[in-house]
Amino acid sequence: MATIKIKQTGSPIRRTKDQRATLVGLGLNKMHRVSELRDSPEVRGMIRKVQHMVEVQEG
Q1: Contact 11, 31 (CB under 8 A)
Q2: Which GO molecular function annotations are given, in alphabetical order (predicted)?
């Protein structure tokens, strides 16, 4: 199954609680942390919600 790598590039400081929770759900919460998840519509939706704080690297 295809995987996708996500790197956090933005800080969760001064963000809404739902955006912080989305980062935690993606396995991120600190700057420059990288998480590898399987590519699914659910994960893509979470990425879209915090797209200003993450960088996507197709895996």
Answers
A1: yes
A2: structural constituent of ribosome
- Decide: 6 and 37 in contact? Cβ < 8 Å: yes
Amino acid at 45: G
| Predicted pLDDT of residue 59 | 65
Direct distance between the N- and C-terminal alpha carbons of the chain, in angstroms, rounded to an integer: 10
**Tens-digit pLDDT profile for residues 5-49:** 999 999 999 999 999 999 999 999 999 999 999 999 999 999 999
Here the tokens at position 45 are 């939706």
